[in-house]
Amino acid sequence: MAADLTGPSGEPSARAGAAIDRLTRVAPDFPVPGVLFRDLTPVLADADSLRLIGVALAVGFGPFDVVAGLESRGFLLGTAVAMAAGTGVLAIRKPGKLPGDILSEEFDLEYGTATLELNPSDVADGARVLVVDDVLATGGTAAAACRLLRRAGAAPIGVSVAIELGALGGRAQLGDVPIRALRLY
């Protein structure tokens, strides 16, 4: 059964955003020089903030059947979203982590290239999928996940992230896929 959290999202989003502002650790020049890394680990470790962010990331997309968490922090946030929405969660992984016949997508990162994989048998044909990750930077990871889901026969109905790094232009990579970010930096 599809989750439908279409109610007003302002209040949970504002509180979730405040938690992100308060708890996120900023690490300059990580993982490479020139990158300002926003580490959500302290946010994830705070149970109240994690629950609140799970709700805030889920609302406003209409009904969806399953959440796709992107490796690795997207697994944690995706699980929180799935718990809030009453759906399951599937894992879109880095290479070599999934058994069986898998689909792969290579993509560009803010600081290099990478590949994501999905076992198409993990998602039902026609499933409405909400993609969840911690940060939207260049958009490469989220766009690759959406391509994988489409190739598997699913419909990515939105991308929901805790933080968007607006200067990196990630939204442009996602075309007409709706995007929700709790914080824009």
UniProtKB/TrEMBL annotation:
InterPro entries on file: Ade_phspho_trans (IPR005764), PRTase-like (IPR029057), PRTase_dom (IPR000836), UPRTase/APRTase (IPR050054)
May I have one GO cellular component term? Answer: cytoplasm
Q: Pathway it belongs to? A: Purine metabolism; AMP biosynthesis via salvage pathway; AMP from adenine: step 1/1
Q: What Pfam families is this protein classified in?
A: Pribosyltran (PF00156)
Identify the main location. Answer: cytoplasm
The record lists the catalysed reaction(s) as: AMP + diphosphate = 5-phospho-alpha-D-ribose 1-diphosphate + adenine
- Example GO molecular function: adenine phosphoribosyltransferase activity
Question: What Gene3D superfamilies does UniProt report for this protein, alphabetically?
Answer: 3.40.50.2020
EC number(s) on file: 2.4.2.7
Name the NCBIfam families on file.
PRK02304.1-5 (NF002636)
Name the PANTHER family on file.
ADENINE PHOSPHORIBOSYLTRANSFERASE
Query: What does this protein's UniProt record list under function?
Result: Catalyzes a salvage reaction resulting in the formation of AMP, that is energically less costly than de novo synthesis.
Q: Which family does it belong to?
A: Belongs to the purine/pyrimidine phosphoribosyltransferase family.
Identify this protein by name.
Adenine phosphoribosyltransferase
